[in-house]
């Protein structure tokens, strides 16, 4: 199985550690200069949407704050919060989704299906934070991200709604829990979960044409430990379960309805 250099972890949870998961746990250095953190390490994720096989990937997240704005990176999804420290979060977002190389990564008869091209998804997000004490413990964040593929990968629209909760905060440790659901329109769903007549003849899988709708529901947890003023560890685990037309896809029948992710990263604060 081919190992791709990076794949987005948040899309399965989406994606990925929850927004501002690490920065909320630490006492911010503030000021007018650049501040934040980066974290890199190994992770595992399904080889493609619906796969039962997994692959080793780099796991990376980052938050960089400057002049009231915050840049967030989760896997291959990036966004810019132009509202800074405001409870309201608004800004542009982009995500890179690598191609499905069916012949190399596919499970069972999926190997005989067409590849799905690389997608570049652009759009925006809006969110709101409320509650929490002076350390951020108890804070609740809700956000919605909507993206459109502009690279002729799946040509569709995807959206992620997420709810996250800052369960624990101290100077050294943070724990975030979250729940999310992902939506894909008809073009997206047919690209990753559909089987055309030609593909059916080649593979033996039943012809399948899914419609747009909710793709999955999921939950996860992010835990961080700061063992020095600069260095720490961030661990992430999550799982999503396919529902609706995605669950009923012959591609998922060859793979798995449950999609899990995990990652461990060394973080550096600046």
From TrEMBL:
<keyword id="KW-0732">Signal</keyword>
<dbReference type="InterPro" id="IPR010583">
    <property type="entry name" value="MipA"/>
</dbReference>
<feature type="signal peptide">
    <location>
        <begin position="1"/>
        <end position="22"/>
    </location>
</feature>
<keyword id="KW-0472">Membrane</keyword>
<dbReference type="Pfam" id="PF06629">
    <property type="entry name" value="MipA"/>
</dbReference>
<comment type="similarity">
    <text>Belongs to the MipA/OmpV family.</text>
</comment>
<protein>
    <submittedName>
        <fullName>MltA-interacting MipA family protein</fullName>
    </submittedName>
</protein>
<dbReference type="GO" id="GO:0009279">
    <property type="term" value="C:cell outer membrane"/>
</dbReference>
<keyword id="KW-0998">Cell outer membrane</keyword>
